[in-house]
């Protein structure tokens, strides 16, 4: 008879009061009953960190003012009490030191994207994870949507034939004005090079677009040609990016990431065209994937339908026609991480159908992508090659 | 400084292994960190009930084989240990005895719809709740969608003027064949009059449609004229319902509830037309409400937008453009119940903005609606009046 | 080698200055080069009739002040000079006398809908056409949309199995205020019982909905239960209609026709559900028909696609993806009439694939439908049988 | 009193049997009753030319085997009998000699796009038209859609603020396989460099995309960076094009034109983002323009609505909600040409609201655009400047 699985214990770094994404991570982890929050260092400001922990019901002795204290405390605890993993949801510049320290200490890690600031850091982190053999997930949350997984499986199964063309756009409008100068915290750190790492829209949302393309197509990006712009007066980082893509094997692509499309909410849209068919997926209507076969009418594939690939079916909770959304997709990434952690604990090879999540290599690939985009943007040469891909 | 709110302790009746809706309730209750499951009688089959409880990690002494045992046990416990509420997710015929017993014992209750089998039971339950003064929620989950709340607030604020016409359709296709004869448990109990109460599609989904209309428009249904059909050979209950509606004050309407629309997943669609404008909302694209003003272009109202009514904004968790879905809407009903229970505990008048949930009167109204539909369906008179509305 | 077909010569009755629909008929007839306007009595006001004819370039001696003069003149002409057909686009009350006179005189006729005011007139007209053996088309223009024809052929071919449920809605908003009191000519005659025949919305647009159902499903309406309302103060005729439908063989349906849905433009929408699948068609996106099979993903059928039924493919002019619209659908009705007239001239049996148009029997059926609706609306009995169907 | 306007007499070059686009031009010219076909040289094969003319009912003496004979004959005729204009719908390589000859002879001309093969030819033609002062239209038919005109007027009126970003995609799938090797005439000439001028998809549909951007935004393209690909084995010309755009004043853009998106029909989609709002228009749903204001909910602007700009309202024939399509848009270009020709005949300054059509300068701009794309595609430099813009 099935025994209840023990909930995985996690600590959170960042995500305290006023942080949007921390709450999303916690809801995603709560949804399926796989995780419990037991410790934290929830802000870079100690008082705020502790106040946030109190609100979330953390025990006093596991509610820390900074992450080194959290790490030190966990290392002192018995294994039956110790956290299984840390979830890092702090601004980007915190990612590397925290992630590196916890990986080196043998903890599993989930880290927000973009993973780190430089390709060198990314490679160092990949090496550390490989050395420790721990689980490391990156919350490219859009990869958790069931219909994104369906798209990936269709490509893998050859249902689109050879992929020829990929167009991905991620358009938002919320930075069409200089919000960072008006006290908006989300806008402020994203547009501070010290915190966000020199990449604006391309780091914040372009990295999601890159991962979506890589996830669905499995294609390796060979070179790119990018144009970055800062449209809003006074802004130092790019708020608009457009680029041409060339993939190994000859496929071509276009990637757009822009935060100045006034009035657009969260327009992430992907089109993949192959010799046998084309698919379109839109994040704002995530339960649907439109499939245009070469020789028949377009088909509307919907979440939960029995004719989906198993990987897509497993990623849903409820019957077709009952929409799942952003938090559920986020939770799917965490479900994949949980499966990997449980397999690790049981010294088993993880079932790829269950342990389905973007790993540290995907995170590193995204960092190299951003570096290549920044290099291309300041080059007069047409094509900039991708370097050091950790694929 | 904000102190963490204690999680509300709940027991679940029904919702064990193989039950779809039990898991949804638990996910909805987990999502926002307001509830914890501490006890249960998860099936009408004692062994299965206990096995289900073990899987969910219930303590042995709170994992019961039947609901009377659960109730008896809770009544023995100290108030600091006792459950706050019971969530009843068993098939319909179980609703009345369980709900009545827990209400009478002073517990708060959340019960699935349709509330009970007869108008007399419904009225008795309303009276019991009024007598005890406890909180009683009915999971008309579609009322929890933020854009449904926006629609309701627009009507309340007079933005559509005087309501003239309401058309609601709830179409599904999953019962287009005789699934109940093929071992499908969901189909089986729904088509067994003893368990479902003599109403087929009209009880299962028509009741949702009725509640959606009542929630959004606030109109009182005066009379109706219904045509019920059992299309699938061998089926005893209706799988298709269509009816004309007349509301107090002169508005007219149409309600369709059908489960034989082959290939349709969960097509709940509402249109409300008033003197100043019309709105349309579709459950399958729940983050959008289309508003057709009398004198201007249609407007796409989206979840999370700053120009929504406060009630609709509060019902969302994440920024606009990031879809929320069925589980989140379900969770909103439970958030409303939690706010009411906390107000009750604090002997405060609940804030209607927070304690926003369908109550026992709404549940009773739905039962009277179903009775009127069944009466009309067997009548040769055009109009059948609604009786004993508990509004 | 193909010889050019002589253009068919037509006269128009009604459709002069300020009339919207007259211009549409002329554009539809011009589009495919099958017709030329040679004569007319373009208004019931002689001076306006002649002024309208001059604008359209009619020869002076064929530009008449009233339709009896037109008829008398045509009868004097040699057959090589005489018109082939008359197109009647005047308000409804003119239809019967004009149509009857031209049929009796041996001319082919195209008449707008609803055909006439009473079932008795309709039957008389059917008999007259049968007696003369001439061509008589009724411009139920929505039947000319290629995807409506595709829907019809899918039903005929059994692709939806046995039809169980039909829901048709025709919603508009332009009469949500009392436009007829503000000098709007279109609104004025439609709301004058003497001109429109006692039926408001149900005659103006409900008749289109009835014909759409009959065209696509081929089902014979057995009885109906209608609720008619005049919402706008001061209006005498119905501006809103809702009804339940029962068809021979057991299919059920709902028909809504309403002109008070503020802000809605021309929302004619049809859903037909059968044992093997469901289809949806919306007039506002006419190039698409969505097909929901029982056992597979929904399919988007689009105008011009090679996998459509021949009848649907023939009804389009341009490649898929290039939208055709209202005028093209209208023109398809006229193409069907032209094929029938040419077959008549050649004493041939018309090819049903080409001579595809709503005939006088369809027009009569619509009149009987309206009569039944008016009878039902004033009855306290649930069901009113359809009488004297000329099917 | 309004006198009927004489129909404009036109000759057609190309467009004979088997040609798709010739029929569209003739239907577009017939629709509004402004034109009559009186002469032609309908194919480059004399016998086929004459057979085509007979089918269309051309008089024997105006049905020519080649275009020089047509020109010579027209020049001999009296002005009251002579054609007003020639419509050139032959393959691209015929455009220049025919257009140049008729312009030089003083005739008005309408020519299909892309205008000619080289920038030098284009400039020569612009100079010739300027010298003669005649009317010269280019059938960039998408510019004739009412909602494209609405978009243009919104930009002109400053409703979107300063334009920052433009993304235009024109995707088709019909050339995803090597159709030109399978006897498809449309595919064959488009993929023959001698006939199509060295540009494949970029000439056939990329030119439409370029014109759409220029029409709506009025922005001058400064430089571009293009990637052209021939995906289908054996194909010599590009079937896929992607490029980055930079406009004078700092706006940026992306243009995609691809004919290998298997299963996509005619996916021309435009998004224009400005400081005050964003608009989206899709050719496959042409009656709708979505407007995303910076500070309010998205608005659905529909053809025919009273709140549109006058230029957009004038471009429609029927009430809102009644779809117009491709042929009507095409006809709008011809209506603009007709207004210009009538103004020319009356020695009047044309009313820009009526004489609204893409002129020879727009055609020349398109040719220079194609030249720049071809230059960029073979360059290793990032940016290629536009030369000799005839703006």
UniProtKB/TrEMBL annotation, chains A, B, C, D:
Molecular functions per Gene Ontology: nucleotide binding
Pfam families in alphabetical order: GFO_IDH_MocA, GFO_IDH_MocA_C3
PANTHER family: CONSERVED EXPRESSED OXIDOREDUCTASE (EUROFUNG), OXIDOREDUCTASE
Alphabetical list of SUPFAM superfamilies matching this protein: Glyceraldehyde-3-phosphate dehydrogenase-like, C-terminal domain (SSF55347), NAD(P)-binding Rossmann-fold domains (SSF51735)
Ranges for domain Gfo/Idh/MocA-like oxidoreductase N-terminal: 8-140
Gene3D superfamilies per record: Dihydrodipicolinate Reductase, domain 2, NAD(P)-binding Rossmann-like Domain
Signal peptide (from-to): none
Source lineage: Bacteria, Pseudomonadati, Pseudomonadota, Betaproteobacteria, Burkholderiales
Protein name stated in the entry: Oxidoreductase
Superkingdom as given in the UniProt entry: Bacteria
Limits of the GFO/IDH/MocA-like oxidoreductase domain: 148-280
Coiled coil: none
